[in-house]
Amino acid sequence: MKSNFIFKADKKVFPMKKIVNILGPMELNKNIIDRSLFTIVIDGGLNHQVQLDNSLSLGDQDSSNYELDQVIPSEKDFSDLCYGLRHIPNQTEIVNCYGLLGGRLDHQLCVIGDILNHTKTYKTQFNLYSNMTRSVIILPKGEWNFPHTGNFSVLSLKEQKVKIFGDIKYKSEEEYTHFKVLSSHTLSNEAFGSIKIINEFPISVYLNYE
Length: 210
Fold this sequence. Notes:
Layout: E1 19-23, E2 39-42, E3 55-59, E4 70-71, H1 80-85, E5 94-98, H2 105-121, E6 125-130, E7 133-139, E8 142-155, E9 160-168, E10 177-179, E11 189-199, E12 203-208
Parallel strand pairs: 1-2, 1-5, 2-3, 3-4, 5-6
Antiparallel strand pairs: 6-7, 7-12, 8-11, 8-12, 9-10, 9-11
């Protein structure tokens, strides 16, 4: 169901930070969260009761046991996370996300999709953590180099040309690899130190550990 709620956020009232957190309702490890960073808490994420120096909690109050800073209508055609993404301060370079992985498959796909759509406009890298490890990296258009040892997959929701190289087993055979939407062509590669990627549209990298 839709409502007449206006989807907007005034970013000027929030601090300008290069790195921020997003805290979701799913399982997380409090010990790896930098609590000094500005943090957007999504609805039930408030139930974790992480003591934060600077935060904004928001959502439709359907899963939080505590009062949120911003309560939005429950009848809407976007998720609480989608609304929360609009509150990421301008010029943010990295968003570390905790408690967004797991749960219903349709919710999980929408989490990835909403973040990928956000990176079409904003040049922001998203790191999604599962327990102690960074499990998913969502990257906007650009050139990237990050460490990893183990299995990984690279997927795209848009056909594009991507170059994958670095300390990996399967490099782009030609200058670029043609990516099809959610293709298994780039499933289960292996990295031995670093992964380098050049992409023309947002992509998601799934890091798997033994």
